Amino acid sequence: MKEEKLNGGIVNHFEPGSNPQVFNGPISGCVFAMPGANVTQNPVQPSTELDEQQQDVVEKLKPMFYGQLEDAKAFLVSIQGMKPTQITDKVNQLVSEKKISDMSKHRDLWKVLHDCGIYDKSESNWNQQVK
After folding, report:
1. Are 112 and 57 in contact (CB under 8 A)?
2. pTM for this predicted structure
3. Residues 66-95: pLDDT tens digits?
4. How far apart are CA 69 and CA 74, in angstroms?
């Protein structure tokens, strides 16, 4: 039996001449398939079903999206789990695409997201990030 010692004290054991597939690290997001297999990947889509609280947030966001309910809803769904800098990047993108009102992109939008616990950084931080 062959032994392979790696950094960190990991020891892999396998037969000489074998073709082992050894994974000594994080493997999330990987696809493993046998040779000749057909693999189809369908990324998990975030749920678009909103609970009552989220529907309330969408109603508050709607004026900032020129009254477009679906745009406000899509925004809320898309920023779930994002880091603060990712949220402000998304806002900048939507402002440049004219989906978010230039007039509402600062205090109005920050206040809704902050009050709802979605964006926990200060208003001055928001204003530095949102151009």
Report:
1. yes
2. 0.63
3. 999 999 999 999 999 999 999 999 999 999
4. 9
